[in-house]
Design goal:
The structure holds 2 protein chains of 2 kinds. Chain A is an alpha+beta fold. Chain A is 45% helix and 20% strand. Chain A has 24 helices and 32 strands. In chain A, helix 1 (2-34) packs antiparallel against helix 20 (847-881), helix 5 (226-278) packs parallel to helix 8 and helix 14 runs antiparallel to helix 20. Chain A is elongated and about 130 Å long. Residues 360-364, 381-391 and 393-402 of chain A have low confidence and may be disordered. In chain B, helix 4 (102-112) packs across helix 5 and helix 6 packs parallel to helix 7. The mean pLDDT of chain B is 82. Chain B has helices at 47-54, 77-84, 92-95, 102-112, 117-130, 146-158, 176-193, 204-209, 243-249, and strands at 3-14, 21-32, 36-40, 62-67, 70-71, 85-88, 164-168, 196-200, 212-217, 220-225, 232-233, 239-240. In chain B, the strands form 3 sheets. Chain B has a 6-stranded mixed sheet with strand order 6-7-8-3-9-10, sandwiched between helices. Chain B has a 4-stranded antiparallel sheet with strand order 2-1-4-5, with helices on one face. Chain B has a two-stranded antiparallel sheet with strand order 11-12. In chain B, strand 1 (3-14) and strand 2 (21-32) form a beta hairpin. Chain B is an alpha/beta fold. Classes of the chains: A alpha+beta, B alpha/beta. The interface between A and B is medium-sized, with 14 and 23 residues.
Chain lengths: 988, 251
């Protein structure tokens, strides 16, 4: 047992390191594979003057070749400045090292050589077409023989012009000699080439390569993913430290188990001492014999465990084709030293148990002092450390060793406390059971008379089962954290972001989604805002602004009640406004609109009608220019705009549309009418509409009835020098807008308001509610403002229709299998799709997370097995010690059946007490450690914070298993105790 | 004649939950070289405690106790104990390592003293022959009867030719026949090696075979003599002198 326990100590310590190291290797590869090629590229960019050769290439080739172990095949791109004309209208010539590998040809073929003054080229884009001849110099032409695009789109993208032509470098047109060029060399870090155990060294090597490359020439700028590698390495180290933390608890348990086995053998050892002394052995010789008796199994166990761990690491390295240095990484010297130290500690503990003497009358012995010291260390650690911070644990200095030992120390202190308290409970139980049936009385009497073994068995059962429950619950907590983090990051089961025409995210029109799903997407706005500081501009902070329909707050996933004092219903009510961008709607069949208007404006202006389409997209219809005379302006309504809402009517300057000047003129307008068939009906009259405020000026609107007006209900818009002449319905936009904000934003409020600048517009927000976190806000989780979608949509678009369109589409219902595939096809231009199930799977299967959870699972299982073994060993030892007493009971008339029953009852009573203490201890340990160790399964800062989850199912199975085992152990031991003849037992 | 065991006002207190308990209360006695002395007395009178003090297992609370002219509290006593004191316990089944053979057990004290294997083996065989255990030398203690085990224990205690043999009720767990065998063997071997023997016993047959008996009651000397006590302390603590001494003293 001692050999097994000590070998177990070594295996747990070393094995957890090996598991963590393997997980770290997998994690490194996965993370590198997940990084876009541009993010993990070692990239060098430099200028080559006109007419000069690329003199740096040989040196860079040498540098890259020295890094070839870690890098993929480099891609080299040379881009000449535009030629003919030498400005942005000109053609950019591009040359590649290996075009056949770097270009995806979509039409035609790759270029070959030049013939006389005509060279071949490939258009990098859709123009010029194949067959076109492009002039690149006075006498030089390039015949376009193909079209295609660069496979590595990240390289040199910003340098390519609208017309870029790939040429064969040896056959470069002479025109290229006259212009300078930029060379970009990029080689991505090979995910299979960088091992986790050498990541830090690789990061340093890459950083040195960057510095050396930049020293070559002032025009060289270089970059490398050194920081990314460091981050991944740090996360791995943090996960490894946590594995050690879990292992330290297992080590404590195994040491306790060894001590337990020692308690069972203590009388044998003490007898050995006595025998040796009787047979003329000196004290030293007796002690030496005891040290040998205990030391040999300890040394054997330590050696076996260490060899097993080293062999395991070596096998793992071989099976995964890792270099031999992996073994040193997985089982570093410090772990070997820890294993040896644990062996020495085990020897010390066992010797202490073997040589232990009765405690003093005050009940304070060595164990009590050690337990008090352990508790003191934990309290000191808790008071000086807020949490096991990822930055601290993953920092260069590593985790705090004492904190890593906390679970072990807690286990030890808890075990000793139980060991000392249980005898009182036993005595109390014995007194209470004096009138009980004989078997129960005998059981409790024996337990109370010799409480050492019983207390040790119960305490060990409690500690080991508690350890198992802790492991299972902590595992469950990490599992739940993964699911919670996925929900928090997603916000909805599906979240789709598309690239809009302007490059900004836009999913409008939302009606497109009806082609691939029956569910109407929920429109979301996600914008960047700047919170004006309370003191000065320098205090401004970036704030993530999210707007979602307040009615859908309840559907949001990833929300936790503890985020806010208010529930989601209350928040929804507080965010409610009547604001909505809902102007008059055009009839479905309407195919034209018209308006009587005249203008007395400084600049010539056109009338533009802004429309909001059903899918939250905007469009506009030009109705013609204003004249000083009444003019009937009209426009056609294309079929796609039918049924749209009129959200504004604008009077833009005709000469330079989009450029406004301050105008003091006025515009007279009749009602807006729509044509259905051959008749006209009124769409809107403008008396109740409001002019937009711009640049601090406000136009005014008055009803008027000019004599010459061709229609009634004429209004006059007096521009009053506004920069933008726009008339819109009253959208009932409150000022300020109610918002749910983070505490840090709320802290900036003055009079309950904050001012945000969003897309250049100033927006006052009223703090309607405060929440610590909000799902989907992950980059700066403590800087956000959440508004009702309709309110923000109306507020931002009222004065500038089309300024914002929904940036994300959220879906809450299950989707068809090909939903993702469909999103990948036109008309969708998906930028990202967040699927909560996919995220959950990703968090669940991340190697570091899997490694951590594996260690926890095995730790739990091992603890449970040890619990049952310990119970059996100590009860067996106890029964052996009491064999004579039990025989005397039998001789006095107690039946063997009664004695057997009393043995079973004893085991059951001890088990129940142990299990009760285990449940309490396990729950306390889970709560403490989970809040102490603020790390996710993959060693990142948890978002949302870790919430303790109890592994009810596993826990109940464990307790039921332990109870069943106790019954079996009780039965077996009872049978064994009575198997020897009464006469023999009476002699013992 | 040399004094092998000399006790002067020896007290020994056992610590207990409700206060210390005195096992010896000023015991004074002497045992001379070559003597075989039986220490008699009722249970709890302090016999075994005195024997343990003599073997150096415990230290007297106060008083002077020297064994083989060396104080039991001296640091050098440990070496003396190993070399010159043999011990035989009542509970032979606990005293003999069950893993070793009879021969190995008898050889063990010699090995512990650094004796070479050949001589140890010869000595062990001699003793086992002497004890009538030659044919059982390969046996392990659990395979022997109680009398046989105790004979092995005696051989083991005598093997190193001790100057003092301390025996704590060596026949306490044996039937009369086995007791007689063990007593005979023990006293013969003691005589052969020229050792002094201090034997705690309730066995009057064994006591009769010794040179002298010492009676202890309540931790004090209560009688001394050959066969019958010559000095008696009565139940009230009065010293009752034998008539011969009274007449000699004119009392």
């Amino acid at each position: 047992m001692i050999v097994l326990a000590v070998a177990g100590v070594a295996t747990v310590l070393g094995g957890s390191g090996v598991v963590a190291a393997l997980a770290q290797e997998d994690q490194m590869r996965l993370r590198l594979e997940q990084l876009p090629a541009s993010k993990r590229a070692f990239q060098v960019e430099y200028r080559v003057p006109a007419g000069a050769g690329d003199s740096l290439q040989p040196q860079l080739d040498a540098a890259l070749s020295s890094l070839s172990k870690y890098l993929e095949e480099p891609a080299r791109l040379r881009i000449w400045d535009p030629v003919f004309p030498a400005d942005e209208r000109g053609t950019t010539l591009v040359a590649l090292d290996a075009p056949e590998r770097a270009v995806a040809v979509t039409a035609g073929r790759l270029p070959r050589l030049c013939f006389a003054a005509v060279c071949e080229g490939l258009a990098l884009g859709s123009s010029p077409e194949v067959g076109a001849v492009v002039r690149v110099g006075e006498d030089e032409r390039i015949t376009v023989v193909g079209q295609g695009s660069l496979i590595r789109t990240d390289i040199g993208r910003r340098l390519l012009q609208s017309q870029s032509i790939l040429v064969h470098e040896p056959a470069l047109p002479e025109a290229a000699d006259g212009v300078a060029s930029t060379v970009v060399v990029a080689a991505s870090v090979d995910p299979a080439g960088v091992r986790a155990h050498e990541a830090r060294d690789v990061a340093v090597t890459l950083r040195q390569a960057v510095v050396r490359a930049e020293r070559l020439d002032p025009s060289v700028s270089a970059s490398a993913p050194a920081a990314e590698l460091q981050t991944i390495a740090r996360q791995g180290a943090a996960a490894r430290n946590r594995a050690l933390l879990v292992a330290s608890q297992g080590v404590a348990l195994l040491l306790a188990f060894a001590a337990l086995a020692a308690v069972a053998r203590r009388s044998d050892w003490q007898q050995l001492q006595s025998q040796l002394r009787t047979l003329s052995g000196s004290r030293r010789q007796a002690l030496a014999a005891l040290v040998a008796e205990i030391g040999v199994p300890v040394a054997l166990g330590t050696s076996l465990g260490l060899l097993g761990v080293l062999a395991g690491a070596s096998l793992a390295a071989r099976s995964r084709s890792l270099p031999p240095s992996f073994v040193e990484f997985a089982v570093p010297r410090v772990v070997v030293a820890a294993i040896v130290a644990a062996g020495i500690l085990a020897l010390g503990v066992l010797l202490a148990v073997a040589l232990s003497r009765p405690r003093s009358w005050r009940g304070i012995g060595g164990l009590e002092i050690a337990a008090l010291t352990a508790l003191g260390v934990i309290l000191w650690q808790a008071s000086t450390t807020d949490a096991l911070d990822p930055a601290a644990i993953a920092g260069e200095s590593g985790g705090r060793p004492l904190l890593l030992l906390s679970p072990a120390l807690t286990t030890f202190a808890g075990g000793i406390l139980l060991l000392r308290l249980l005898p009182f409970a036993f005595r109390l139980g014995e007194r209470m059971a004096r009138r009980s049936p004989l078997s129960l009385r005998l059981a409790l009497l024996n337990v109370a008379r010799a409480p050492t073994h019983a207390a040790a068995a119960t305490a060990f059962l409690a500690v080991s089962l508690g350890g198992a429950l802790f492991s299972f619950s902590y595992r469950e907590t990490l599992e739940r954290q993964g699911a919670d983090a996925a929900s928090f990051r997603a916000g909805a089961p599906w979240r789709v972001v598309e690239r809009g025409a302007s490059g900004q995210p836009s999913v409008a029109p939302l009606t497109r989604f009806q082609r691939i799903t029956r569910e109407n997407p929920v429109p979301i706005l996600r914008l960047g805002g700047v919170l004006r500081g309370t003191g000065s501009l320098s205090n401004s902070r970036d704030v993530e602004v999210v707007a979602l329909p307040r009615q859908r707050l309840d559907d949001l996933i990833g929300w936790r009640p503890e985020f806010s004092r208010l529930d989601r219903d209350q928040i929804g009510r507080r965010l409610a406004t009547r604001a909505s961008l809902d102007g008059p709607r055009l009839i479905e069949k309407a195919d034209g609109i018209r308006i009587w208007a005249r203008g007395f404006t400084t600049a010539r202006r056109s009338v533009v009608v802004h429309l909001l389409l059903p899918g939250q997209a905007f469009s506009r219809i030009q109705l013609g220019s204003l004249d000083r005379r009444w003019t009937l302006l009209h426009g056609e309504i294309p079929p796609r705009l039918r049924g749209a809402r009129v959200v504004a009517i604008e009077f833009t300057e005709s000469e330079a549309p989009g450029v406004s000047s301050f105008d003091e003129g006025a515009i007279d307008l009749g009602p807006l009418e729509q044509r259905v068939g051959s008749g006209w009906s009124e769409v809107a009259r403008f008396a109740a509409w409001a002019p937009a405020v711009s640049a601090g000026r406000e136009a005014s609107l008055v009803e008027t009835a000019p004599r010459t007006a061709p229609v009634d209900d004429v209004v006059r818009l007096q521009l009053n020098g506004v920069s933008r002449a726009l008339l819109a319905p009253d959208y009932r936009i409150p000022d300020p807008l109610p918002a749910l904000v983070s505490p840090s934003v709320a802290a900036s409020a003055v009079d309950g308001r904050v001012t945000l600048t969003i897309l250049g517009r100033s927006l006052d927000l009223r703090i309607a509610a405060v929440a610590k976190l909000f799902p989907t806000v992950t980059s700066s989780p403590d800087q956000f403002a959440v508004l009702d979608y309709d309110a923000l949509f109306a507020a931002l678009n009222a004065a500038s229709p089309g300024l914002v369109t929904p940036s994300e589409a959220w879906f809450f219902q299950a989707k068809e299998r090909d939903f993702l595939t469909q999103l990948g096809r036109p008309p969708f231009q998906v930028q990202s799709v967040v699927e909560v199930e996919q995220l959950r799977k990703q968090f669940r299967t991340e190697p570091l997370a899997v490694g951590t959870k594996t260690v926890l699972l095995w730790s739990g299982v091992a603890s449970a097995v040890l619990a049952v073994l310990g119970l059996g060993i100590l009860t067996g030892a106890s029964l052996r010690a009491e064999a004579g007493v039990l025989a005397e009971y039998q001789a006095l008339g107690a039946t063997p059946r009664t004695i057997a029953r009393s043995t079973r009852i004893r085991v059951l009573v001890l088990s129940v007490m142990g299990m009760a203490a285990a449940v309490l201890g396990g729950a306390a340990a889970t709560a403490t450690v989970a809040s102490f160790v603020a790390l996710t399964a993959s060693a990142e800062r948890p978002l949302p914070p870790i919430a303790v989850a109890v592994a009810w199912r596993d826990g109940l199975v464990l307790l039921a298993g332990a109870a069943g085992a106790a019954v079996v152990v009780g039965g077996l031991l009872a049978g064994k105790a009575l198997r020897t003849s009464l006469a023999t037992r009476l002699r013992m | 004649m040399n004094v092998v065991v000399s006790a002067r006002d020896v007290f020994f207190l056992y610590p207990a939950r409700h206060g210390d308990v005195a096992a010896l209360r000023g015991l004074t006695l002497e045992v001379h070289s070559g003597e075989a002395v039986a220490l008699l007395g009722p249970s709890g009178s302090g016999k075994t405690t005195f024997l343990r003090l003599c073997s150096g297992e415990m230290r007297p609370s106060t008083g002077a106790l020297s064994v083989l002219e060396r104080s039991v509290t001296a640091s050098s006593f440990e070496a003396l104990r190993c070399r010159d004191i043999g011990i035989v316990h009542q509970h032979y089944h606990r005293a003999l390592p069950p893993e070793l053979t009879v021969e190995e057990i008898v050889e063990l004290p010699l090995h512990l003293l650094g004796e070479d294997s050949r001589r140890s083996s010869i000595r062990a065989r001699e003793l086992l022959e002497r004890a009538g255990m030659a044919d059982r030398r390969r046996a392990h203690p659990p395979e022997l009867s109680g009398g046989e085990q105790q004979r092995v224990a005696v051989c083991a205690a005598i093997a190193k030719r001790p100057r003092l043999l301390l025996a704590d009720e060596p026949t306490g767990e044996l039937d009369p026949e086995a007791s007689a065998q063990v007593s005979k063997l023990l006293l013969e071997l003691v005589e052969e090696v020229g050792a002094t023997a201090l034997v705690v016993t309730h066995d009057t047959e064994l006591a009769k075979q010794t040179h002298r008996t010492i009676h202890i009651r309540d931790g004090r000397l209560s009688g001394e003599g050959v066969g019958r006590p010559v000095l008696v302390v009565d139940d009230q603590g009065w010293l009752r002198l034998p008539r011969r001494l009274r007449e000699e003293a004119g009392v």
